[in-house]
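Batch job 17 of 40 flagged for manual review because the log was empty.
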Amino acid sequence: PGAYGYPQPSHAGAPPMPAAPPPVGGRPGAAPYGRPPATPQTGGRTRHWIEINGTRHQISRPTLVLGRSTEADVRIDDPGVSRRHCEIRTGTPSTIQDLGSTNGIVVDGQHTTRATLRDGSRIVVGSTTIIYRQAEG
């Protein structure tokens, strides 16, 4: 007999069975307990970018100034765009603000001085259309 009078297990030499379930990710495709499967982990960051005439401009800082000036973060060569036309601020939520431009901004069809941005928002400055994009990861 084994310890305390119990019979010796027949699988002597085998490692003991774990008392806890396998760790998250222990099985391919396993989801954390009590939660649906998530997209691949990328640190939980949201990526932000704008598209102007088919060109993608990554937003890697908290603010991005758009304008005609060579000192703007993104230069827009459009006579209807002021030197420092508007500023996008990334966050929760992301926003856009007119910086005192001559012609203003139009966001999702509304002429405004400030607006909340969502993925797919259409921004018009001068005669240039900008698409704001954001995605997890």
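Reviewer: the log was empty due to a logging misconfiguration, but the result itself is present. The two ends are 57 Å apart (CA to CA). Unflagging and moving on to job 18.
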